Amino acid sequence: MGEILVELEHVGVAFQAQRSIGGGRFWALEDVSLQLRRGERLGVIGRNGAGKSTLLRVLAGILVPDRGRVRRARVSCQLMSLSLGFVPYLSGRDNAVLSGLLLGLRRRDIVARLPAIREFSELGDFFEQPIATYSAGMSMRLAFAVAMQVEPDVLLIDEVLAVGDAEFQAKSGAALRQRMGDGQTVVLVSHDEKQIAERCDRVLWIEHGRSVLEGGRDEVFAAYHRAQHPAPEAA
Amino acid sequence: MRRHLIELIAFSTYAELRAEAARSYLGLIWWVLEPAMMMAAFWLVFDVILHSGGPDYIPFLLIGLTVWQWMKSCITHGGYAIWSNLPMVRQVALPPLVFALIAMLADTVKFLIIFALLVAILWMLGYPPNAQYWALPILFLAIFLAAAGAGFVVAALVPLVPDLRFVIEQVLMVVMFLSGVVFPLTQVPESLQWLMALNPVAVVMDDARAILMHGQLPNWVGLGKIYAISIVLCTVGVLFVQRLAPRFPKLAS
């Protein structure tokens, strides 16, 4: 087993319900604990609103918990965000550099990968044109090609799996699979059980902001299914 | 980490300027045309119509507005930067000051372009470059620190209370009129002189005109006080932003 990279102990995160004086708070995360070890691929399952995305933002260091503790080894945790910081009036090339810098890459690294990004995104000469002239598909291909370049110690993915047309979906899915192999530590959030089952070896199940069960994939899925489909209820 | 942030700030500043130039038909020309139109408007009102200008009014006004526009845009653009970038603040773990600095640096680049033009115009008006220009960088740094300090304080508060934006524009207009930007403050009562000496905007206006129009060096003691005030303001602003930083990613824009 690898060393522990990130550890959450009874973490809770509260949001202000609305922007007004004396507005109440609600806890998007109530009490979540987890351990993430090097090389692990952890999937997070739970229904909509269970707090999966909030959890990911805590792991990324974007949100500071209001209670509980986060312990992090000296590692970088990066949320894989598509189209981060894209500016419509700039060329694909400039946007790739900008987005890469925002995703934590050094300038020389992103510049060295520009040919690969151009190639992967299949933009051709459009790479030098403002992205305002792109179709939605072209824009997504560029976004994906840039996001694939991030190289944090811990890669955090929130449902950004395959984008574009069928052909590009196959290509991006394959690239992502490769990215998640190679001993990369990954936390993947999805409400699509199949994605998690295919790509993760450990699973954390959260419900209403609380961790219900963390463990091996099959064990957690079995418990999850038992809870989801007890005796069918009358609606 | 630190180098990465410097690269990010530098490239984002370039990207911001580039995008701004691409956004309108005349692009870069607006950087000069917009302040020129405003200067013409003030000249029309105060000199042509009200005859309140005096002989040196045009250079007086040009210098005042050029410097003031820089300060004002640093305070407003820098001050609104965290708020307007909240969607990004929610997605990436960056020190929020980065967003304010990018906006301020972009405005500084624009100021330097306009300033180069100002020097050329002053020359045509009979105020050629003089030996005291060496003091300009020292003055500019004081101006930037004062504006950045105010901008950081605003940047910390606007995400929490966006309503402040409506107040800030009005406050800045009052500051402009009280600081000798568009007309000289010849009638400040004796009892308020000490206050004006601590108003960074009024002091840097005087110093900029002293160098550019009269070839005189700034009053170093007065400028030293402005440095002290500005550094305190910057420290307060930075601490403010850092203290409130954990709340920003939770805010709706």
Helix content of chain A: 25-40%
Please outline the major beta sheet of chain B: none
Strand content of chain B: under 5%
Level-2 CATH architecture of one domain in chain A: 3-Layer(aba) Sandwich
What number of structural domains do the residues of chain B give? 1
Main-sheet strand order of chain A equals 5-6-7-3-8-9
Number of helices of chain B: 10
Rg of chain A (C-alpha, Å): 19 Å
Order of SSEs of chain A: EEEHEEHHHHEHEHEEH
CATH topology of one domain in chain A: Rossmann fold
Report how far apart the termini of chain B are. 28 Å
| Global outline of chain B | globular
Biggest protein-protein contact in the assembly: A-B, 28 and 24 residues
Give an account of the 3D structure.
- The complex is a heterodimer of chains A (235) and B (253).
- Chain A is α/β, with parallel strands linked by helices.
- Chain A has a domain at 4-78 and 186-228: Rossmann fold (3-Layer(aba) Sandwich).
- Chain A is 34% helix and 27% strand.
- Chain A contains eight helices and nine strands.
- Chain A has helices at 52-59, 92-102, 107-112, 114-121, 136-147, 166-180, 193-199, 217-228; strands at residues 4-16, 25-37, 41-45, 67-72, 77-79, 154-158, 185-189, 202-207, 210-216.
- In chain A, a hairpin with a 2-residue loop joins β8 (202-207) and β9 (210-216).
- Chain A is globular and about 55 Å long.
- Chain A starts with a strand and ends in a 7-residue tail after the last helix.
- The mean pLDDT of chain A is 86.
- By secondary structure, chain B is an all-alpha fold.
- Chain B has one domain (2-250).
- Chain B is 73% helix and 0% strand.
- Chain B contains ten helices and no strands.
- Chain B has helices spanning 2-23, 29-49, 57-84, 86-89, 97-124, 136-157, 164-178, 193-197, 200-214, 220-244.
- In chain B, α2 crosses α3 and α3 runs parallel beside α6.
- The longest helix of chain B is centred in the first third of the chain and has 28 residues, at 57-84.
- Chain B is globular, with a radius of gyration of 19 Å.
- The model of chain B has no long low-confidence stretch (mean pLDDT 90).
- Chains A and B meet through β1 and α2 of A and α1 of B.
